[in-house]
């Protein structure tokens, strides 16, 4: 089992935002997680659907999952 979560917060008081997700995989040894730098990413509101992380399944069945800002 594998759990992935992402957290974002602002430096300004009372403007914290948090999103998290739990994902289960039958064969986690085939999973590669990449948290690449997002150009221009700053604390605060982000556009819906913005890619913030990539999870790739190396088994060949499903190639890629995208973790997006909601």
TrEMBL record:
Residues in Saf-pilin pilus formation protein domain copies: 10-70
Keyword Signal on entry: yes
Membrane-spanning segments: none
Descriptive protein name: Pilus assembly protein
Keyword Calcium among UniProt keywords: no
InterPro entries noted in UniProt: Adhesion_dom_sf, Dr_adhesin_sf, Saf-pilin_pilus_formation
Protein species of origin: Salmonella enteritidis
Pfam family, one: Saf-Nte_pilin
